[in-house]
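User: I'm curious whether this sequence folds into something compact or stays loose and floppy. Could you predict its structure so I can see for myself?
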Amino acid sequence: MAEWCYRELESYKYQVTTDYGINVGIEGYTTSRNDDYYTLDTLGNLTIKAGYAWDGASGPAIDTDTNMRGSLVHDVLYQMIRERELPEACRAAADDLLKQVCLEDGMNPFRAWYFHKAVRLFGGGSAKPGTRHPPQPICLKVPLKE
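Assistant: Here's the prediction. I'll summarize afterward.
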């Protein structure tokens, strides 16, 4: 018998369709695995690869053009913290970068300020190492056709 496998995914809303690179200002770390979705070099250059999926801004926030790039980069950095590729101490830098990128993309400064306050106050659980595990593949046996 042959086997086919699939995974159930959490509800993501968006998927990167081209590679995107940004210097995140977090130096001295690299991704510890060969990842199909992102890489970080020791100079802080993060490359998010086509195919990476994320859920946009969290909580009651509305996704807009001014927070999409920030939420993408922030989600990748939080994932790296959860997966212990970055230490929890990098969370503040990730939160600061969210605000910076949102401002660069034209977000109102007051809105950027409260986005930053919200992730500082309530984002810790989303970055806690080991809190999310990738869905395990579900494999089923399929009869072979002759």
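Summary: Helices lie at 68-82, 91-104, 109-122, 124-127. Residues 68-82 form the longest helix (15 residues).
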